[in-house]
């Protein structure tokens, strides 16, 4: 069991443990232009920011600090500075706009915002009451970096409790309005000491990189907490499109890669698979990685991708498989430290092989800021993620769909994503989403929204796609309605918003 004692400041723990063990000069944060901050540099910057927060901005332990920036060293220094000062970090993604930021502000009432100078406009337009914004990354006298330069390099970190809230993270809103979840100082270390320690097993010489924003807990864990916990370094990319990512991996000798299934597929499609040759561990999360995609990536790169399901509510990954244990098409088994089960509507375990609600228990868990949804997500001590899964007799978990995306049609249970995978096998289909549409006879019918590739010049008919799907999956799963569209609605973390199509 994980025991961090009663008092714990995770920022102190992340930095000081490495510095005590490996010295202050180890490389920590890397930028594409070749700049490197050592662990000592990062600690000094974070200390100075903590001093600005406390001395100049009047931060009191427990105050919430909104953070908004691209993946780059100053954002990491700000995150650690807030925690050192005893504040609660409210991480937000650069893609969010004024309306979304206003909702978040209303929910968590931050006193202070630290914001990349290129991203202040939307934050100002959000007009969050009582908020003081300080920009970073520019050169004027008011800039955080300039003010921090005058502060001492040492700071006495606030002695927080292990279960003081360290961070508020917003869910990506695949089902509508975002929800804020609270995570403790001990949770931040727990994700490193479960998934990272047991499945990823990084070493101090590893170089991490990836695409998820640090404002998304997938990125916060993979690109900040995991490398810092072992004294490794991380290359931070501001706009990591698949091409940029693949090139950066090759150029900077990256060994640990975090991204989503779509990016791996795009890297293959752009002919850049060879750039991933030096990667030792590649993680895929956020959406399911179908067996066919796993095999294709393996054939092109030799990589054995580590699929893992994580959630903002649980902070990071809780089901995954390590190298030798990987079974393509399965998300893996419960990460050591977590227990996972598949339950029926009444909360009883279903037999192996039967679909049901995925439920998880472990050191991290869901605490919503507004308690209204707590009874939906947490039942009888289990965190119920909202995903339909099947477990096999060996304890491997197989993703079916978001529970909301299960389509019940004429008595059949059909998982939308399975139909999507079948459609994506068609050479002219580049993107698609499958949902249930109300139908007087069948209750629901399977409806597909299909995006055709730019190279497709001939007329593709609904009938052709239906016949195509019937060749790879049971005929009753074929989309009875097909609508051709230009593009599909996605969240800022790249997830399909099927609810908007419904
Ligand atoms: C889905 C997956 C199948 C699933 C996340 C890693 O995605 C993250 O958090 P979110 O709160 O969404 C959670 C939901 O996303 N999902 C995530 N990973 C997988 N479905 N296979 C997967 N491998 O519906 C889950 O309930 O945005 C991922 C680490 C931290 C995260 N926050």
Describe this structure in words.
The chain is an alpha/beta fold and 502 residues long. It has a domain at 410-501: 2-Layer Sandwich (GMP Synthetase, Chain A, domain 3). 31% of the residues lie in helices and 25% in strands. The protein has 15 helices and 25 strands. The protein has helices at residues 10-22, 39-56, 73-84, 98-108, 120-126, 144-149, 185-200, 217-230, 242-251, 261-269, 291-301, 374-377, 416-424, 462-472, 498-501; strands at residues 27-30, 36-38, 64-68, 88-92, 112-116, 132-136, 165-170, 180-184, 207-210, 233-235, 256-259, 281-284, 306-310, 317-320, 333-334, 339-343, 356-361, 378-379, 382-391, 397-402, 406-409, 412-415, 429-439, 443-452, 481-484. The chain is globular and about 70 Å long.
Structure keywords:
single chain; 502 residues; GMP Synthetase, Chain A, domain 3; 15 helices; 31% helix; globular; binds 5'-O-[(S)-[(2-aminobenzoyl)oxy](hydroxy)phosphoryl]adenosine
């Amino acid at each position: 069991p994980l025991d961090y004692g009663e008092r714990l400041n995770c920022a102190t723990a992340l930095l000081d443990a490495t510095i005590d063990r490996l010295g202050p000069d180890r490389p920590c944060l890397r930028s594409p232009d070749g700049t490197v901050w050592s662990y000592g540099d990062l600690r000094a910057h974070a200390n100075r920011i903590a001093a600005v927060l406390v001395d100049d901005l009047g931060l009191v332990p427990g105050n919430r600090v909104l953070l908004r920036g691209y993946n780059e060293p100053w954002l990491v220094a700000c995150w650690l500075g807030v925690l050192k000062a005893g504040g609660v970090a409210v991480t937000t993604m650069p893609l969010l706009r004024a309306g979304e930021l206003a909702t978040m502000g209303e929910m968590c009432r931050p006193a202070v915002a630290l914001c990349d100078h290129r991203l202040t406009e939307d934050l100002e337009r959000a007009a969050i009451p009582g908020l003081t914004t300080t920009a970073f990354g520019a050169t004027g006298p008011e800039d955080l970096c300039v003010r921090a330069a005058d502060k001492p390099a040492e700071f006495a970190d606030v002695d927080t409790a292990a279960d003081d809230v360290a961070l508020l993270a917003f869910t990506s809103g695949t089902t509508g309005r975002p929800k804020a979840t609270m995570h403790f100082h001990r949770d931040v270390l727990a994700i490193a000491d479960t998934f990272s320690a047991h499945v990823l097993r990084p070493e101090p010489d590893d170089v991490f990189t990836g695409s998820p924003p640090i404002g998304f807990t997938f990125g916060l864990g993979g690109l900040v907490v995991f490398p810092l916990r072992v004294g490794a370094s991380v290359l931070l990319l501001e706009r990591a499109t698949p091409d940029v990512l693949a090139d950066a991996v090759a150029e900077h000798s990256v060994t640990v890669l975090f991204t989503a299934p779509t990016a791996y597929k795009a890297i293959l499609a752009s002919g850049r698979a060879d750039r991933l040759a030096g990667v030792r561990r590649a993680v895929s999360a956020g959406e399911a990685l179908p067996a066919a995609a796993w095999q294709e990536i393996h054939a092109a790169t030799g990589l054995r991708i580590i699929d893992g399901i994580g959630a903002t509510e649980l902070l990071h990954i809780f089901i995954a498989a390590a190298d030798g244990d990987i079974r393509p098409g399965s998300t893996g088994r419960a990460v050591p430290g977590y227990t996972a089960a598949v339950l029926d509507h009444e909360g009883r375990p279903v037999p192996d092989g039967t679909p049901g609600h995925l439920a998880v228990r472990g050191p991290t868990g869901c605490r919503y800021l507004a308690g209204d949804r707590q009874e939906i997500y947490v039942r009888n001590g289990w965190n119920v993620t909202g995903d339909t899964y099947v477990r096999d007799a060996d304890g491997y978990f197989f993703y079916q769909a978001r529970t909301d995306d299960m389509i019940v049609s004429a008595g059949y249970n059909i998982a939308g994503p399975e139909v999507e995978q079948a459609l994506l096998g068609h050479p002219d289909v580049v993107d698609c989403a499958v949902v249930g549409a109300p139908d007087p006879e069948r209750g629901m019918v399977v409806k597909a929204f299909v995006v055709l590739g730019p190279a497709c010049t001939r007329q593709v008919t609904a009938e052709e796609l239906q016949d195509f799907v019937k060749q790879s999956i049971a005929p009753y799963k074929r989309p009875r309605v097909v609508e051709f569209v230009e593009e599909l609605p996605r969240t800022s973390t790249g997830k399909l918003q099927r609810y908007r199509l419904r």
